[in-house]
Amino acid sequence: MAEDNPDASIESIAKKVPSVTPKLIEQVLEKYGDPASSETGSPSSDVSKPTAADDYPTESDLSESQRKVLHAIYQNPEASQRELAEDIGVSAATVSNRANSIRGFDWSDRKAFVEAVLDIETASPEQNAKSMFDRNSENSLVFHELEERVSALEEQRENRNGQQEQETTFSDTELVHKMVHACIQYEEISDDEERRILALFIE
């Protein structure tokens, strides 16, 4: 009855229950507790609710393929799945499957997700400048190497063309015969020069 009427006084409760005195009611309430004074057991506001970040995996929890996708997103967070696929050499469907297989990943919030999950230190402006210089130097070396290879290929092609022209000239036996005959019949050519000419055709 006290629970049904938490605001009622002890005297009013005693009047509603026959043979019960206010003193007895007071003793019962002291022993078993007053229902009006008990709390309903609401959750404490001091207990922090779990945030979305608490449900994120750590980088060590991810597979190598999943880490590649997240690193690609970190490098270019505005890229589409197709562009990311080209960067890491897979299909767009593979990028989607790998990303969605990561616990807590949301494509619309991918930038914040990768920054929270990946163990990446923020580089200073000096480090960024050095990294850009290193990439430019590496690109220059690659370009120089390509130039050397192209030059070597052009030289080989020229040598082959010259050799083919020479082979074409001496492959015509009738023409060679006429050339040898003309040289021998030419009176101003000495015997030594004739032998040298014949040796040239024979070789």
Q: Helix/strand-derived class?
A: mainly alpha
Principal-axes shape call? rod-shaped
Number of domains: 4
What distance lies between the first and last C-alpha atoms, to the nearest angstrom? 130 Å
Count of DSSP strands: 0
CATH C-level class of the largest domain is Mainly Alpha
Strand content of the residues, in percent? under 5%
CATH architecture grouping of the largest domain = Orthogonal Bundle
CATH topology of the largest domain: Arc Repressor Mutant, subunit A
Question: Could you spell the SSE succession in H and E letters?
Answer: HHHHHHHHH
- List the uncertain runs: 38-42, 44-52
Largest sheet: none
Please work out how many helical segments DSSP would assign. 9
What is the typical, i.e. mean, pLDDT? 72
Helicity range of the residues? 55-70%
Radius of gyration based on Cα positions: 48 Å
Write the layout of secondary structure elements.
Elements: H1 10-16, H2 22-32, H3 64-75, H4 81-88, H5 92-100, H6 110-117, H7 125-170, H8 173-185, H9 191-202
Region (Disordered): 28-65
Biased composition (Polar residues): 37-48
Pfam family, one: HTH_24
Could you explain the architecture of this structure?
- This protein has 203 residues and is mainly α.
- The chain folds into 4 domains: 1-37; 56-117, Arc Repressor Mutant, subunit A, CATH 1.10.10; 123-171; 172-203, no CATH class.
- Helices cover 62% and strands 0% of the residues.
- Helix 1 packs across helix 2 (22-32) and helix 8 runs antiparallel to helix 9.
